[in-house]
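Form 7-S
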Amino acid sequence: MTSAARICRLILTNFRSYRTATVAPKASLVALTGPNGAGKTNVLEAISFLSPGRGLRRAQLDEVAFSESNSENGDQPDGAYGRPHVRSWAVSAGVDGALGLATLGTGIEPGISGEAVLSRKYRIDREPVASAAAFADHLRVVWLIPSMDGLFLGPASERRRFLDRLVLAVDATHGSRVSALERALRSRNRLLENRHPDSHWLDAAEHETAEIAVAVAAARAETARRLAAALAVRREARFGFPSAEIALDGWMEAMVLTRPAVEVEDRYRAMLKENRPRDAAAGRSLEGPHLTDLVVRYREKAIAASNASTGEQKALLIGLVLAHAALVANMTGTAPVILLDEVVAHLDPDRRAALFAALGGLGSQVWMTGADPSAFADIASCADVIDVRTLT
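Output:
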């Protein structure tokens, strides 16, 4: 039986627009309201730091620290913040998760001189842990934010990052594998910059690269396969959103589902060796999972998602994220915490009702934002509707 992770108490210290703030929701649905710039997205970003990675804005460590400019412009986009006056920050959450009650904490701490040592710390019940991957034992977090609206029209790199985020929600070690692959490819590229590279060093670099590449491709392919099945289940349930069909455009992801990993590794090593002159001329590796694309189609209209209308693309994306949340629950046994930033306001009344019904069916704790409290009128009786201006 699937349970649901809950954030019972969230405490922000010197985070973005908040010197200090505490949120202690009682309901499963949490709606954060307030005018633009009040700090709604900042609360969601704080929660996203309780998962592997750099949070939903992909911010640098010192960008999220409190400053006076942050406090006056709570929801400005990345890069719009002034240099923080206080460079330490902390996010702490009391959670009721997969392993019961626990306190998760992360942030950067002041050094002896008063400046922060820009090394992120992670703690569970006040005990240090190596990384945010350990938080995944307690809760998983998935999100949908406005910057993802152009996913189907943007470059493949954005869809690949989105795909890796989907994998990371079910496999907390995936991020470290992707980073290792990037490092391995950079090392090979540096060797190829030499006019006469050492073949032994290249062999070693390509051996490592192929091994990591197949692990990355296998995790992506398996998650995509499971997500496609989850989308099919939701399609049969007719849950109110257009149906997406997904596939991966990458030979390695296709091959790894049907052939032994060692065979795929051997093929990629041979390919890397054969392509050395071409890759040296290009200054980068021209084959591999670092170029994989996520292909999404609008099933009912039999068109690419990129050819759908703006509203249809938004609805497809919502359906994709909700199916992924259901997949996370099925695979881990615990429904994830869902973050929806400015999603409700852009839906018509029927689709808004469908969203609230779908969220209720998932059983997740859901944190939503919106400038207009009336957007949450249909769930006001069963949700915590919180004006973020009361948190400061």
